[in-house]
Design brief:
It is built from 13 helices and 4 strands. It is mainly alpha-helical. The strands form 2 sheets. It has a two-stranded antiparallel ribbon with strand order 1-2. A two-stranded antiparallel sheet has the order 3-4. The mean pLDDT is 94.
Length: 266
């Protein structure tokens, strides 16, 4: 990776100005670097971003994302993606809630679908052990419902820890004139999640796609030069995913059970 702050700021600004996702762009460039076994300089990184934006040279292929790029180049395992979406910087080997959340998120490797790292690292709203799966299924389910509702309001995520659902409900009423309780807002988020699951299934996604890249199960991660992060135990992950399906009301294929569909009138 590149830790030069000026390069990081320039790269992020360029992505914002050109409409590229900074996380996907960074992960795709990292995929390129791994496949070709080269460490890119700051100027090369910025140049590659420009090539992606202009569909110039290798940039045209990189613009299709890490999963497609790695597959075309013959190294599919080099793409750190879930459901085709590039993973952000939270290594799931160091935060098991994020591991389960990445795998089960309807939009792929997204850190904001549930954001269990807030429990595991930020210790908010309560602290949990980041190296265990126990208790994470329910946390992720509840957080997904909450976040889906908040995202549908189109409000800034950075006020998440300061605002309550009751406050969101009051703001919603002030803007729309529609009265909803905090509970009703969360139920709306729950319906959103299940509808996304149903749409994913209609497009060919199933339980096999609720998974992580194999690297996280068979390779160590590294923090700095001397701290190793153990790979995730595959059996423990699959058990946690099964617990999540149960808490979420999904069958073994990853689809909402009939009772949920009827209850929420999906």
């Amino acid at each position: 990776g590149n830790t030069d702050i000026k390069t990081v700021i320039s790269a992020n600004s360029f992505c914002n100005e050109t409409g590229m996702d900074a996380i996907s762009a960074a992960s795709t460039i990292a995929c390129f670097s791994e496949i070709h076994e080269i460490k890119l300089t700051s100027s090369e990184i910025l140049g590659m971003l420009a090539d992606i934006a202009d569909k110039k040279g290798e940039g045209e292929l990189l613009g299709q994302g890490a999963a497609r790029y790695a597959k075309i180049k013959g190294f599919p395992d080099a793409a750190m993606t879930v459901k085709g979406q590039e993973l952000p910087s939270y290594d799931p080997r160091g935060a098991y809630g994020m591991a389960l959340s990445y795998a089960t998120s309807t939009r792929g490797g997204c850190h904001l679908s549930a954001y269990p790292v807030s429990y595991e690292i930020l210790r908010k709203p309560v602290s949990t052990d980041r190296f265990i799966f126990e208790g994470k299924a329910r946390i992720i389910k509840n957080s997904e419902d909450l976040n889906a509702a908040i995202d549908s309001l189109a409000v800034c995520r950075y006020i998440f820890f300061a605002a309550s659902m009751e406050e969101y409900a009051r703001v919603f009423h002030a803007v729309t004139g529609i009265s909803l309780s905090a509970h009703e807002l969360i139920k709306a988020g729950e319906r959103i999640y299940y509808n996304e699951r149903i749409m994913n299934a209609a497009n060919g996604f199933s339980a096999k796609d609720d998974d992580l890249p194999s690297r996280f199960f068979n390779s160590y991660g590294y923090k700095g030069s001397d701290i190793q992060i153990r790979p995730i135990n595959r059996k423990s992950f699959l058990k946690a995913r099964a617990n999540y399906y149960k808490a979420r009301g999904l069958d073994k294929s990853g689809m909402p059970v009939a009772e949920i569909i009827k209850k929420l009138e999906l």
